Each structure stands twice: as C-alpha cells, then as structure tokens.
Predict the 3D structure of the following.
Amino acid sequence: MRIFLTAVSLAFLLSVGAGVKSAQSENATFKVTNSAPNIIHVKLFSQSRSGWQWPSSKRHWILDDSKQHTLTAGNCQPGEKVCYGGSYKNKSTHWGVGLDGNRPCAHCCITCGASHAWNLTGGTSDVASRPSSGRIDNGPVLVPFDD
C-alpha cells in the first residue's frame, strides 16, 4: 500500500510539474571596436530592471586595442532593453549611457536576444556611434576588471 501511495504521489507531482514553464533567458550581444585614441572602459546596463549591469556593478571591460570585442549581457529577459555605456577612465568623454549608466543616448541600446556592432570614435562627449561595416567576428575574449 505504501508503494502504491508513493507511486500515485510521484505521478501527481510529475503531471503538475509538466505544465510549468521555466523562465526563459537570452543574451544581448554588443560587438564594440575602440577607434578612439585612448583606452575605453565599458559596461552594459539594463533599462528594464533597476540595478542590473554586466559584467557586474563593481566590474567593467577595458577596450585597449582597435580590435572588435564581444560584450554579452548574459541571461537577460526576453524583451529587456540593454544599453552600453563607456568612458575614458577620467570620464572626460563618454559613449552611450556613460560608465555610470545615467546619460541619455541615441542608438546605444538593443533588445535582449539581439546583436549589434558599434565603432567608438574619439571626439566630443557622446559621439554618435556608427554601426560597424564589414565582417563581424567575436574578437578576443575580454576579462572584466574591478572598478
């Protein structure tokens, strides 16, 4: 009898769990090239979930060459708006939403699940980012640095 009740309970739990959908997550992929004269520090910011940043709230990526690099907002939510922000270390020039994520930007965001490329050039603050032309490759792996 005990085995029968255990089997019935297990079958019930499995049938209830079969109708449950797990939360879906995706990635937002930013392919960024530093064409500015100095090193650029970059982060990604969610515009849909307060406080969400990649690689983390205490880390950032460093673009210290002219190669294209892939930055990923991993495990973002479908439909979530993710923006890039960057600046020189002294924050004299910024791109996108800036390294603190609090500046307005034009064309610096994508929707989770999408991918886009930008070429960051030097000049005045919030230089308009241009989509990169030509073949897109993943470039070297970037290691996040502490803020």
Summary: The CA atoms of residues 43 and 60 lie 5 Å apart.
